[in-house]
Design brief:
With about 525 residues, the protein is mainly alpha-helical. The protein contains 22 helices and no strands. Helix 4 packs antiparallel against helix 21 and helix 6 runs antiparallel to helix 7. The longest helix has about 30 residues. GO terms for molecular function: monocarboxylic acid transmembrane transporter activity.
């Protein structure tokens, strides 16, 4: 049922060289510094995703301060959450040129700046720019590198590592909610945002922990993964050679351009060595030329990788399973966000506020969500279990809960459904793993950037759409029904693609059949 890159006959060229000799793995892959990367990603999820889950506290303060409609004020939170994910493809360009570490550090500064500037807001529209856009872009510049680095550092326990790091969202929802409530009560919402901006500077520390792997380490990881998953079948090798002979991957022009720049750098170095007797001004000019050439080479290589991933012959969009994955992401995330936004109002309509105040339903989702990510990650890492099948089963459970939630009108019934929503939505930790299986480590940043961009669109328009349906029908039932049906459409797209690929004649080894 699982369709990997071998199943669909598609190769991005990141692991085409599979050596027959045993490769000694880097000790930092699946161990050592890899766990520091998980810790860094965990803190990022607390400071970014956890803070966004706690924006309801500030939303009430903004309503009281600016006396605007609930719909207009809610767009501040929606913009922040949506832009964090929507900018994913563009952040992929930064990662290709600057690397994950520098991108995350710049994003941490930008996020903190957005919080601090928002403390001086004079209107809701001011918050659109400072908090929604500025802090949102900064969050996106930290969030994507945090996910990508975990994928680079782990091979055998990727699902578990992603599950542990993303549990920061649940912990952050509790910590940041309590913190913002305390700060708003003691110091007011403006000072609370200023203090939160100072706390957000810790994102720069998280970015500094994202020590990049060397290209040699990445190639060794790719070789190990290729050996453990499948030895290339003859038909696939033939198709790959055909692709390369037709220039699909387009590596030759890039190599020629890189060689040209290297020649320039070598010539500059020779001049520096032989020009010791020259003037200091000339030597300074040569060093500047060398720096500019190196920077130009880095930017061009990064842009070429980013451009080829989206628009080149080896575009990610030529992978039909990945395109279906994008369509699924457009409908999936709103089904998780809508209950967080509208459950308090549903509880109020059912006269269940007293029970909800003791133990809020949204807190049940957040708590079980933590365990769901870890447990689903552990299950997916078992040798006999397919990550793809676990991913699909969790999606089926979540869409069933979304469709049945309006039928529950007691606190116990709602609590059970919310617990199932929290557990099944733990599949979010599997999204980077599934994406990496489809496109490879080399294209993970750009591919996952597209996926979270689709999620951002879903988060941006999902809750307002649900509120609009309520304004028409005066019920939240149809909001959940429509969201669930659209979610089911996305799941059907995922189910159709593996079936299409299996109809294609292909040869697979016995080991590949176990993937």
């Amino acid at each position: 049922m699982y369709a990997s890159r071998e199943d669909i006959g598609y190769d991005f060229g990141d692991d085409s060289k599979v050596g027959s000799k045993p490769v000694k793995p880097n000790p930092n892959i699946d161990g050592g510094w890899a766990w520091m990367i998980v810790f860094s990603s965990f803190l990022v999820h607390i400071l970014i995703m956890g803070s966004q889950m706690a924006l309801g506290v500030l939303n009430m303060e903004w309503l009281e301060e600016f006396n605007q409609s609930r719909g207009l004020t809610a767009w501040v939170s929606s913009l922040s959450m949506g832009i964090t994910l929507i900018v994913g493809p563009f952040i992929g360009l930064f990662i290709s040129m600057c690397g994950c570490r520098l991108t995350a550090i710049i994003g941490g500064i930008l996020n903190a700046l957005g919080w601090i500037l928002s403390a001086y807001a004079s209107s809701v529209h001011y918050l659109f720019l400072t908090f929604g856009v500025t802090a949102g872009i900064g969050s996106g510049m930290v969030y994507l590198p945090a996910v990508v680095m975990v994928g680079q550092y782990f091979q055998k326990r990727r699902a578990l590592a992603q599950g542990l790091s993303t549990t920061g969202t649940g912990f952050g929802a509790f910590l940041m909610t309590a913190l913002l409530k305390y700060l708003c009560t003691e110091f007011g919402w403006r000072n609370a945002m200023f203090i939160q901006g100072a706390i957000s500077l810790n994102l720069c520390v998280c970015g500094a922990l994202m020590r990049p792997l060397s290209p040699k380490d990445l190639s060794e990881k790719s070789v190990v993964r290729s050996n453990s998953e499948d030895n290339r079948a003859k038909s696939l090798s033939h198709s790959t050679e055909t692709i390369k002979s037709n220039g699909v991957l387009g590596d030759e022009p890039e190599k020629k351009e890189e060689a040209t720049h290297e020649e320039v750098l070598e010539s500059v170095q020779h001049i520096e060595i032989g020009g010791n007797s020259g003037s200091g001004r000339n030597m300074y000019g040569l060093r500047m030329l060398k720096t500019v050439s190196q920077l130009t080479l880095t930017v061009r290589k990064g842009f070429a990788l980013w451009y080829s991933s989206y628009f080149g012959a080896a575009s990610l969009f030529t992978n039909r399973v990945f395109v279906a994955f994008i369509i699924w992401a457009l409908f999936a995330y709103s089904s998780f966000v809508i209950p967080f936004i509208h459950l308090p109002e549903i509880v109020k309509q059912y006269n269940l506020s007293r029970q909800d105040n003791v133990f809020p339903l949204t807190s049940i989702i957040a708590i079980v969500h933590i365990f769901g990510k870890v447990i689903l990650g552990i299950i997916s890492d078992l040798p006999c279990i397919s990550t793809w099948n676990v991913f699909l089963m969790a999606n089926f459970t979540l869409v069933t809960c979304i469709l049945t939630l309006p039928l529950m009108q007691t606190y116990v019934g709602l609590a059970v459904v919310c617990a199932l929503i929290g557990f099944s939505s733990g599949y979010f930790s599997l999204m980077p793993v599934v994406t990496e299986d489809l496109v490879g480590t080399k294209h993970l940043a750009n591919a996952y950037g597209i996926i979270i961009c689709a999620n951002g669109i879903s988060a941006l328009f999902g809750p307002p759409f649900a509120g609009w349906i309520y304004d028409i029908t005066q019920k939240y039932d149809f909001s959940f029904y429509i969201a669930g049906l659209l979610y089911m459409v996305g799941i059907i797209f995922l189910l159709m693609q593996p079936c299409i690929q299996k109809k294609q004649p292909r040869q697979k080894s016995t080991e590949a059949a176990q993937v």
